[in-house]
Amino acid sequence: MSSFKPYLQLTRPANLVTAITDILAGMAIAQFTFSDFSPALLVVSTLGLYGGGVVMNDVFDAKLDSIERPERPIPSGKVPLSSATTLGISLLFLGILAAAMFSFQSGMIAVVIALLTVLYNRFAKHHVFFGPLTMGMCRGGNLILGMSVLPESFQSWAWVAVFPIIYIAAITLISQDEVHGGKKTTLYIAAMFYAIVLLSQLKLANEHGNLLYTVPFVLLHAWFIFRPLWNAMQNPVGPLIGKAVKAGVISLIVMNASWCVAFGLWPVALAVLALLPLSMLLAKVFAVT
Questions:
Q1: Which residues cross the membrane (predicted)?
Q2: Residues 27-63: b if buried by 16+ CB within 10 A, e if exposed
Q3: Average pLDDT value for the chain
Q4: Model pLDDT, residue 278
Q5: How many domains does the structure of the chain reveal?
Q6: Rounded Cα distance, 163 and 104, in Å
């Protein structure tokens, strides 16, 4: 098990749980009735795409991590670079294959997500604008992958993916200063992005007649993300920024639960929220960022 753990670390297990909730939220937005288990392939797909994406992140950052984060699996020598590369590529292919087995449309969406993850990790990551945008598009694509469970609904609601893009862009903005500390201005911009997402969820919930049920979920989400972000604003040092990033990532589960209840599927929302303790537990064992 000890030799397997570094490979598991590369996939960010706590984050993988959040990727599953993207799919469930996308299915809820598409008004899938959850009457059968056929979309399980989409869950397998997101595990492959997200897992492969974060592994390739460490592959491309191997040199930088040897200086800034030498404790990570690759620079510490626990996982050879060649093995990590093989793992990352294999997981991305698994993600594409599983989606294609569900439908051609889902397969094409998975291809786009895989390409975006490579684009982010190889070229866009350290760019102040394209980094947050590309990473956000990866997460937005994941929500769309869930919506592809019902193609007709997918065409009506794919635009909702703009909100995960805004949300992840906020997290990515914060994380750019995680190692060396950052600027308060960046954190205020991220807070504005967060607020846009939360208010938009309330607006959509109101339009669907589900505002009363959605408010508690949105308030819970706000408490999770704004508390550590406020602390980082007061003192923008690396450790506090890291906590704000971690909270933003784990709280994706609460955001996805909010989408489910906003679109009227409160039992699915509760099921998604039930995954939060699992993700938080995994976050104590494995790194989130």
A1: 12-34, 40-60, 128-150, 156-174, 186-205, 211-230, 265-287
A2: bbbbbbeeeeeebebbbbbbbbbbbbbbbbbbbbbbe
A3: 93
A4: 95
A5: 1
A6: 25
> How confident is the model over 47-54, as a mean pLDDT?
97
Helix (H, G, I), strand (E, B) or coil at 188: helix
pTM summary value: 0.93
With a CB cutoff of 8 Å and minimum separation 6, the contacts of 77 are none
Integer Cα distance of 3 and 5 in angstroms: 6
Burial degree of 71 (CB within 10 A; 0-12, 13-18, 19+): exposed
3-state secondary structure of 71: coil
- Reading the block at residue 106, the tokens are 């889902």
Q: What is the mean pLDDT of residues 40-65?
A: 95
Domain that holds residue 174: 5-285
pLDDT in tens, 209-259: 999 999 999 999 999 999 999 999 998 888 899 899 999 999 999 999 999
DSSP state of 121: I
- pLDDT tens digit string along 138-158? 999 999 999 999 988 888 999
| Token pair recorded at residue 213 | 């049920």
CATH of the domain at 76: 1.10.357.140
d(CA 186, CA 33): 40
32-46, 111-125, 270-284: the lowest-pLDDT one: 32-46
| Number of separate helices (H) and strands (E) present in the chain | 15, 0
In angstroms, the CA 105 to CA 110 distance is: 9
CA dist 195 → 1, 200, 240 (Å) = 42, 8, 20
* Integer Cα distance of 211 and 168 in angstroms: 24
Rounded CA separation 244/116 (Å): 24
